[in-house]
Amino acid sequence: MTREQERARARRRHDKVQAAQRRRAEQRARTRRLVAVVATVAIVLATVVGVALAMRPRGDSAAAPSGAASPTGTAGPSGRCTTPPALQSKPKQFGEVPDKATAEGATWVATLRTTCGPVTIELDGKAAPQTVASFLHLAREGYWAPSPCHRLTTGSLSVLQCGDPTGTGASSPGYGFGIENAPADGAYPRGVVAMARTQDPNSNGGQFFVVHQASRLPTDGGGYSIFGKVTGGMDIVDQIAAAGSDDSNGRGDGRPKTPISILEVSVTKKKA
Fold first, then answer.
1. SS3 label, residue 219
2. Which one has a higher pLDDT value, 140 or 47?
3. Which range is the signal sequence, renumbered to this chain (predicted)?
4. Which conformational region is residue 167 in: left (phi greater than 0), alpha (psi within -120 to 50 degrees), or beta?
5. At 196, is the secondary structure helix, strand, or coil?
6. CA pair distance 164, 208, nearest whole angstrom
7. Rounded distance, CA 132 to CA 181, Å?
8. Which neighbouring-strand residues pair with 267?
9. 109: which strand partners?
10. Cβ distance 97 to 134 under 8 Å?
């Protein structure tokens, strides 16, 4: 074999080695690209699933079937109501009207823990200082623990009335006070909270009502004191109203068919 033939043979061996190395390099590059694509797809899928889970409606528990009874056997809004406790036979009595200075000029937040869930009310101590002072006093003294919402009306007057521990609509905390912040036109918007009273304008005490549909009340005698508005739990009031009353007088006025009672009332001063 000549020297020229040996050199040609060596070049061929070199070219084969180089070609094999290029093939292996290309294979490694294809493998890296495939791994990168798979990793990218996995990241995208994880992101999509995470977003879907984050946007899912949340709840503390599974929704109860429509019309289901609560664990204690009382049907209520979405099955959430529990059986109200027994009525108070001898509610606490107080000899003097609370000092309005305790509430004057401030806004307060009251949370009513009820057998159907919490209802939050913002109390206006600027517009109705005497009424709010009385509410704060009765809440702190546990006057309404417990007490039922004993009256539901529908129609031109649409209110849920609460605050009488005996459930008769006839009791008081042992004192009375006058009207304040009553609308001159007798218009009571949905969600406002006002005092219930007799024909005596100084008979405001412990009973109050939540307006579940805009209503117009008589202005004779001075009207009814607005002292707050519902800021949370209006859906509970709505569902109690939707269930209707026993209509004891034939005028859409009676005890709620779905019983609801106040178990506890807590109050805090709203931060400026």
1. coil
2. 140
3. none
4. left
5. coil
6. 9
7. 11
8. 110
9. 122, 268
10. yes
